[in-house]
Amino acid sequence: MTTDPSPDGGHDGGHDEPARVLRSVAEHVAAVLGRVAPLPVQDVPLAALAAGAPGRVLGDDVRAVAPVPPFDGAAMDGYAVRLTDLPADGSAVTLPVVGDARPGAPAPAGGGGGGAVRIMTGAPVPEWADAVVPVERTSTGRFVAGGPTTEREVTLARQPRAHVRRRAEDVRPGDLLARAGDAVTPALVAVAASAGLVALGVRRRPVVAVLSTGSELVPADAGAVAPAPAAGRIPDSNSLLLAALVRAAGADAVRVGAVPDDADALRAALDDAVGVRSGEGPGPDVDLVVTTGGVSAGASDVVRAVLASPDDRLRDVDVAAVALRPGRPQALARWRGVPWVALPGSPVSAFVSFALFVRPAVAVLAGRVPPATVRRRAAGAWSSPPGRVHVVPVRTLASGEVERAEAPDGAAGGHATSALLGADALAVVPDGTTKVEAGDELDVLPLDGTGSPGPGSP
Ligand SMILES: Nc1nc2c(c(=O)[nH]1)N[C@H]1C(S)=C(S)[C@@H](COP(=O)(O)OP(=O)(O)OC[C@H]3O[C@@H](n4cnc5c(N)ncnc54)[C@H](O)[C@@H]3O)O[C@H]1N2
Ligand code: MOO
């Protein structure tokens, strides 16, 4: 790795405005995370967890209330017997068939030893019995499904295994099944049901409102080709991008869409985003608002305009230039108390900023630990502009190394959105680096994943 020894590292050398100290990526992550906390815990029925979005996070430890299995049951179709009725040397004995045990019905009462009870897998074993001899090991040979059960006696012998699933051999009441902070998995839903639970205490799933700003935007769903956007106008891809990223991060997205570069329109859209509609009171809980665009220095930068003008609804404004490429202009605030993360509008900047700043915030809201970087070697060399952390879309090779993701036509410019198409991770190259060499170890942030099990309680 080639580094830049100039004292300009940490300053923004890449712009023609006067160089000034930029906020580090870590400081901006901390500023974002300082504004969010794990959401409250609510009891959600197991059926709703099974049917709903995956990956809910437990707010409480989960302990079994009932034993699994709940009773001693047959593990094979066959005959329930008392071992002392079968010769210890393994020779065969003929016993009268004294009853039937079926799944879903209590074991036949009485009977006692000296006989055999016809029993099907899953049926409770009679109290006096302590083993099941599989039917294929007996004179009966097999049961006919749905057929008569007429045999009056059966010849069988002691078997090496009892084929009885003992009450509570799997789970005992009070056993810890999962911890606060763990993700709800399909297996947990099933085991919890078996262990007598009907609901789990999970953190509320975060709801994130996303909206784009820019008078150049036309709704992407309107179609970019027909009708062709008027000159100078482009499809609003960012609100789709953010909504999909929010979902992938483990939250629900409310897509407000695009608003023009008009401060009052943005204020109204923010009210809409946080669920306040013309005096009707709070709407659905929104935990975070994410906007794109309008945060740089342009005359029509509407987010900056709203952040700069006094407003009762606006609090805790924090406008920052972050030592990050792409993704330098960033801002934070609260709108009607709801944390608002304002990302730059350039789609690659928005994508990178989401991965670095918003995905960790979603993880914290959900009760998870934010996704971590992993160490990967670079498969090839590339040059890196110094002065800011350079985030590079990469793809992971079968060897585990990463190579720079290139657009299908070979373009790999910092703002080529098509370079994102083949990327499965972002390489985070330190700000002093001018060249990444093949074999260099890099911090790489995988793009899938929602974070790891969290600490549970705040
Ligand atoms: N004089 C300066 N100009 C700029 C600076 C600066 O510091 N001084 N910073 C540059 C950097 S870095 C970035 S990044 C951009 C970010 O600017 P904004 O957040 O104000 O973004 P916009 O100007 O609104 O848009 C930038 C670019 O992205 C396109 N865009 C915006 N929204 C969408 C959307 N929803 N879907 C698709 N594409 C979108 C927009 O059309 C512009 O091309 O500012 C630099 N300028
Ligand atoms: O820093 Mo801007 O986000 O590169 O394009």
From TrEMBL:
<comment type="function">
    <text>Catalyzes the insertion of molybdate into adenylated molybdopterin with the concomitant release of AMP.</text>
</comment>
<dbReference type="Pfam" id="PF03454">
    <property type="entry name" value="MoeA_C"/>
</dbReference>
<dbReference type="InterPro" id="IPR005111">
    <property type="entry name" value="MoeA_C_domain_IV"/>
</dbReference>
<dbReference type="InterPro" id="IPR005110">
    <property type="entry name" value="MoeA_linker/N"/>
</dbReference>
<protein>
    <recommendedName>
        <fullName>Molybdopterin molybdenumtransferase</fullName>
        <ecNumber>2.10.1.1</ecNumber>
    </recommendedName>
</protein>
<dbReference type="Pfam" id="PF00994">
    <property type="entry name" value="MoCF_biosynth"/>
</dbReference>
<dbReference type="Pfam" id="PF03453">
    <property type="entry name" value="MoeA_N"/>
</dbReference>
<keyword id="KW-0500">Molybdenum</keyword>
<comment type="similarity">
    <text>Belongs to the MoeA family.</text>
</comment>
<feature type="domain" description="MoaB/Mog">
    <location>
        <begin position="209"/>
        <end position="364"/>
    </location>
</feature>
<dbReference type="InterPro" id="IPR036425">
    <property type="entry name" value="MoaB/Mog-like_dom_sf"/>
</dbReference>
<dbReference type="InterPro" id="IPR036135">
    <property type="entry name" value="MoeA_linker/N_sf"/>
</dbReference>
<dbReference type="InterPro" id="IPR038987">
    <property type="entry name" value="MoeA-like"/>
</dbReference>
<keyword id="KW-0460">Magnesium</keyword>
<comment type="pathway">
    <text>Cofactor biosynthesis; molybdopterin biosynthesis.</text>
</comment>
<keyword id="KW-0479">Metal-binding</keyword>
<dbReference type="InterPro" id="IPR001453">
    <property type="entry name" value="MoaB/Mog_dom"/>
</dbReference>
<keyword id="KW-0808">Transferase</keyword>
<feature type="region of interest" description="Disordered">
    <location>
        <begin position="437"/>
        <end position="458"/>
    </location>
</feature>
<keyword id="KW-0501">Molybdenum cofactor biosynthesis</keyword>
<dbReference type="InterPro" id="IPR036688">
    <property type="entry name" value="MoeA_C_domain_IV_sf"/>
</dbReference>
